[in-house]
Amino acid sequence: MSSGARTGTDRATVADTDTDTGSGARASTGRGADTASGARSDFGRRTGAEVRGFVGAGAGVRPSAEGAAARRALLAHPALLLVGIVLASLNMRVALASVAPLVGEISAAFGLSSTASSLVTSVPVLFLGLGALVAPWLGRRFGAERVLFAALLLLGAGILARVLPSVYALYGGGILVGTAIALLNVLMPGLIKRDFPDRAASMTSVYTGAMIAGATVAAAAAVPLEKALGGGWEASLGFWSLLAAAAALAWLPQVLIARGRPGHGVRAVPAGGARPAGVWRSALAWQVTLFMGLQSLWSYVLIAWMPTIFTDHGMSRSTAGVVFAFNNLIQVAGAFVVPLLAGRMRGQRPLVVLVTTLVAAGYAGLMVAPVEGAWLWSAVLGVGQGGAVGLALTLIVLRSGDAVTAAGLSGMAQTVGYLLAAAGPLAAGALHQATGSWTPPICVVLGVCAAALAVGMLAARDRTV
């Protein structure tokens, strides 16, 4: 990562190394005691304070000797960790994106109104926010590896629950899905910060790219899977529980290797003995949080309703699903490139202008010529959406003065942000049902874009919480 991308966390922890004991401090200063254990790997040096500092990743715990050895063994084989991260990230949007092309059939099966149909996607998003409230505590109590493993199992159970022949199971499964994804959302950035401190921006690009790639495949395959499996929408949705199971299996080694770390050591204070900043009282933290929420809102409106907008204007379901998948595919480019650019800039205002303008232009196109320009609007929206989510996640790291503050800001941004975003699909569905047109909901989202631009310009200033 370039020097511009390094936050105060790196400087604070380097200054604190002389107070640490054991191999963690020696590895960070470059002395040779940890050479045999491979602590000076290409994946970056880390101090004991850095490892303990990120609360959201199961830090705040002084590892036992067995746990420290386990962590070194894990990082000596980084391919195993990378596979686990990528497979877990692939699951972060699959359960949401696979529903959108099938909303019409799900609504017909249960006789749902437009407002009730919007709850199929709004309920999981609501619990993305509520689940984020408990994720940091769970990470501290049980360790990030265990919680991520449990989240993947919970995700698979939620996906299967949604295909049961009950509207209560449909919504109840959505609660499980949203809670599981919330745990993945909150803990994954902290784990990356802990294990790849010198490559946080590039690894953020990898995991956000994998997340969006999973959504792309799920959206594109929803209707073809329905036909291939011959089981209707239930078989199509249920299929993705297999991906969650595969990710859980790939993540199991992380649990076994790291089980000596969290929960088996002594609680430690943050780096330098400092207490975390009061993020809930910080204006800058609220600016980052609101940008996170507003960009999530416009994305989840599209996840819920983009295929329906196309089919309501005469496009076939299969074509609408492919265009929606194309939108998700294009997001990979923005999600990969924008964090890298943001990490090399002192202020990110040009990127805020870029992503919000692209999203606003794409929404305007859906309002004016939804079918005729479907591919163009999907591409424009995709670059903007992917860039916006990548920028929002990167701002959480860049605006934090230390790792503990970053954990608090991550929890705050994802809790408030997703609670705000949950209102988007529901409000859009209700407004469409009331007016019989998609123009009023799109106009409201254009107002959201303007608000995101304003708050994003403040969040992108070169300051820290």
Task: Characterize this entry briefly.
With 465 residues, the chain is mostly helical. It is 74% helix and 1% strand.
Verbal overview:
- With 465 residues, the chain is an all-alpha fold.
- It has 19 helices and 2 strands.
- Strands 1-2 form a two-stranded antiparallel ribbon.
- The two termini are 21 Å apart.
Which key features would you list for this structure?
two-stranded antiparallel sheet, 74% helix, disordered N terminus, 465 residues
The fraction of residues in strands falls at under 5%
On the 0 to 100 scale, the average pLDDT is 79
| CA-based shape | globular
The percent range for helix content is: over 70%
- Nearest-angstrom radius of gyration? 22 Å
Q: What are the low-pLDDT stretches, counting only 5+ consecutive residues below 50?
A: 1-62, 261-276
Give the quaternary arrangement of the chains: single chain
The N- and C-terminal alpha carbons lie at a distance of 21 Å
Strand order of the largest sheet: 1-2
**Annotation field: number of helices:** 19
Largest β sheet strand count, sense and barrel closure: 2 strands, antiparallel
Helices and strands, in order, run as HHHEHHHHHHHHHHEHHHHHH
**How many strand units?**
2
Structural class comes to: mainly alpha
Strand-helix topology:
Elements lengths: L7 H8 L7 H7 L18 H6 L7 E2 L2 H11 L2 H13 L3 H4 L5 H8 L3 H29 L1 H18 L5 H29 L4 H30 L2 H7 L2 H18 L7 E2 L15 H30 L4 H26 L6 H20 L5 H25 L4 H33 L3 H21 L6
Antiparallel strand pairs: 1-2
Helix pairs in contact: 5-11, 5-13, 7-8, 8-9, 8-10, 8-14, 8-18, 9-10, 9-13, 10-18, 11-12, 11-15, 11-17, 14-15, 14-17, 14-18, 14-19, 15-17, 16-17, 16-19, 18-19
